[in-house]
Amino acid sequence: MRSIIDTYSLSNGTQIPVVGFGTWQTAPEIAKSVVKSALVSGYRHIDTAEMYGNEKEVGQAIKESGISRRHLWVTSKLNNSFHSYDLASQAIDQSLADLGLDYLDLFLIHWPNPVAFRDENWEAHLQDTWRALEDAYQAGKLKAIGVSNFRKHHLQVLEQTQKVAPMVNQIRICPGDLDQETIAYSRDHGMLLEAYSPLGTGKIFTEPTMQEIAQETGKTVAQVCLRWSLQHGFLPLPKSIHPNYIEDNTKIFDFKLSPEQMQRIDALDGVVGYATDPDTAGF
Ligand SMILES: NC(=O)C1=CN([C@@H]2O[C@H](COP(=O)(O)OP(=O)(O)OC[C@H]3O[C@@H](n4cnc5c(N)ncnc54)[C@H](OP(=O)(O)O)[C@@H]3O)[C@@H](O)[C@H]2O)C=CC1
Ligand SMILES: O=C(O)C(=O)[C@@H](O)[C@H](O)C(=O)CO
User: Fold this and answer.
1) Other Cβ atoms within 10 Å of 179 Cβ, number
2) Helices and strands, counts by H and E, the chain
3) Residues 8, 43, 52, 185: which is the catalytic one?
4) Is this complex's ipTM strictly greater than 0.90?
5) Which residues line ligand 2 (CB under 6 A)?
6) Which residue puts its alpha carbon closest to atom 7 of ligand 2?
7) Residue from 168, 199, 234 whose mutation best tests the ligand 1 pocket (most atoms within 8 A of CB)
8) Considering the entire predicted model, what is its pTM?
9) Which family does it belong to (predicted)?
10) Element spanning 4, H or E
């Protein structure tokens, strides 16, 4: 692996760039210029969502960049109020329209058990929602499909009726937050793990062990986090609104963490808290 545009293979053979650019909390007013900065810095994989309120601006940045569509990877996600076959099908078309694209490279169910459907039928709603993604995948609107914030028991609900297995599970993975059960189950079932909040949403930078390892390697804490993620075989999705950070976060291929450094990071249990529990999340 030599650059952020090297790829992992998904279970359907699709090649996905190994680092994606995150856009949560990137306000629509600045999203176009921020995403343009990322494209100038070499990112070819952008992670957005209907929930982020910036799909239109992300789409404008892509269009104005002049980069050929086939050289870009764009992921979006189904918001929590669209869990049914019809609503999910409409939401896919709306994301495509807002982004100004004919297809998405990857579309994810954002959360498995949203508050609006947390009733005795949530499993059936989830299965219907997945069927909408499968149909859009078969129709060529989505080149790959997957899930986000799914734990083993959510994946098992899909398994009861799925025709196409999820290719990706996007979950929170950063130093101190490694949900081993979900990681192992997802991998055993053919999914690539995308690591969201790979910098602990900005909370990792003052962590002493991370600072020590940054000193040892001559890199920044952010670069150490991203390198750690890649060496574990995850696909990190760093977010920034600052061009210098955006650029720095690509410089993670000119060093390697030793097994001992990897172990010290693995041992940092809970230093930036844990992922939101999808079964109790209030959204
Ligand atoms: N599926 C899901 O439910 C979720 C998905 N995600 C995805 O993952 C992406 C990343 O996660 P997110 O939680 O946003 O945050 P990150 O873990 O990527 O951390 C972002 C924070 O770190 C700062 N930062 C970034 N690079 C550097 C650097 N080199 N030096 C110093 N500070 C830096 C940013 O600052 P600044 O922005 O000020 O430059 C920002 O405050 C999201 O944007 C989204 O795409 C995130 C959460 C949930
Ligand atoms: O960023 C995302 O993709 C999320 O789903 C979460 O960050 C979520 O929106 C949240 O944490 C709200 O507080």
Assistant:
1) 17
2) 10, 10
3) 52
4) yes
5) 24, 49, 51, 110, 276, 283
6) 24
7) 199
8) 0.99
9) Belongs to the aldo/keto reductase family.
10) none
Q: Which residues contact 235 (CB under 8 A, 6 or more apart)?
A: 8, 16, 18, 19, 20, 192, 193, 194, 195, 229
Reduce the DSSP state of residue 104 to 3 states and report it: strand
Q: 270, exposed or middle or buried, with CB in 10 Å at 0-12, 13-18, 19+?
A: exposed
- Cα–Cα distance measured from residue 85 to residue 211, given in angstroms and rounded to the nearest whole number: 47
CB of 209 within 8 A of CB of 176?
no
Question: Two tokens at 227?
Answer: 């390198």
CA of 239 to the centre of ligand 1 (A): 4
- With the CA atoms of 177, 273, 176 and 178 taken in that order, what torsion angle do they form, in degrees rounded to the nearest 10? -10
Model confidence pLDDT, tens digit, residues 64-115: 999 999 999 999 999 999 999 999 999 999 999 999 999 999 999 999 988 8
Binding-site residues, ligand 1, Cβ < 6 A: 22-25, 47, 110, 148-149, 170, 196-202, 205, 220, 222, 237-242, 245, 248-249
Known active-site residue 52: yes
Domains of the chain: 7-204+233-250 (3.20.20.100)
The answer to whether 31 and 38 are in contact (CB under 8 A) is no
Rounded-to-integer distance, Cα 243 and Cα 134, Å? 37
Ligand number with the minimum distance to the CA of 205? 1
